[in-house]
Amino acid sequence: MSVEREPIGVIGVGWVGLVTAACFAEVGHEVIARDILPEKVESLSRGEITIHEPGLGELLERNAERLTFTTDMSELLESARLLFVCVDTPPTRSGDADLSRVRSVVEDLPAGSDHVLVMKSTVPAGTGNSIRRDRPGLSYVSCPEFLKEGSAVEDFLHPDRVVVGADPGDEAAQEAVAQLYEPLGGELVRTDVASAEMIKLASNAFLATKISFVNEIANVCEEVGADVGEVARGMGLDQRIGPAFLRAGIGYGGSCFPKDVSALKMLAGNSGYHFQLLGAVIEVNELQKRRVVQKLQKHLGTLVDKRVALLGLAFKPHTDDMREASSLVLAARLEGEGAEVVAYDPVAGGVARGLFDGVEFRDSALETLGGADAAILVTEWPEFAELDWVAAAEAMSRPLLIDGRNFLDASLLRSAGFEYEGIGRAVGDSVPAGTAE
User: Fold this and answer.
1) For the segment 323-349, what is each residue's pLDDT rounded down to a tens digit?
2) Which residue among 23, 86, 143, 256 is the active-site one?
3) For the whole model, what pTM was predicted?
């Protein structure tokens, strides 16, 4: 099956779908993308996007002639045979993945369809086999996404690996998908569907495990007087370990890690296996966010009527994604302890305003710090490293800062007059500002 000059179909134009559509258009393909929300389709057709992802807007503008957005499934099916499914699979109350949107896409395919369903959405291992049992003869390829928010365009156009899973009978479909990605480079992993599905879940679970592990190490470092930055640096120089995702902080968040770790844990449990390690990973991540509140109490005693400033709200920099953001837990815990919470995020402020009760929002970091009894750096936005910290100290009622990402230069903050505390860092440490994964 050769599809080099045929249009590519994308179903669902959320973050993954929109990046997928824009990047395929960037490398020369005609793309037709379908979503069920008319207002989203209309805004995208006008060239307007509501998500923050570096470089995405430029791609959409540059490739507008190759991109078509529609709500009409029949228009999509008439135009494209390769259908990249990029719909949400959010967790249910049980922690399992909600596959209702995936099932809805399958139901929309006509009987005897010669379309190829290419699954980009993260689904439990076994989903592809289940779909093929329900729809005999349907061509199905698993091609999980490995995009990082904040660098998704770069990740798509320059992947480190592309996984393409297909079972016997779908070799031609597998090859067609592989051909689309070959010009992008990166290791091409051809495997079966169940293994491809597991690669995605296992990858995110492992990265989440590294984060929870280094956070546990950070907590021990605080007890014994070690510096987790030095410990992580020494660990990361071991090629078997590597430095990525060994930055201590207040835990992971976002749309992938919490959902995928929980989904893999539930998948194992539903199969009769108790995945104890993932249970600990989840528990450590939840407790890590609350340790910041304990650090404040150590310095301030009661938090009743104390004014606490949150610097950054998004779960990571260079995105406006608030899903499972640490700031949500922190704000709720601080308010539960009687504190007044004021917050600022350079990008996610508009999205965040509807998610917090009782939090005051400001338009700049310096304004947010004015009159505060303490501040917590929640998201490592570059602008915080460039802030006039002398002026910030003068603006605060008490210049106390908890660096939840170990992002700032401790000696610089202390010389500016701050009481400074990081995560797992020795009292006299000084680490230049940097960025985390």
Assistant:
1) 999 999 999 999 999 999 999 999 999
2) 256
3) 0.90
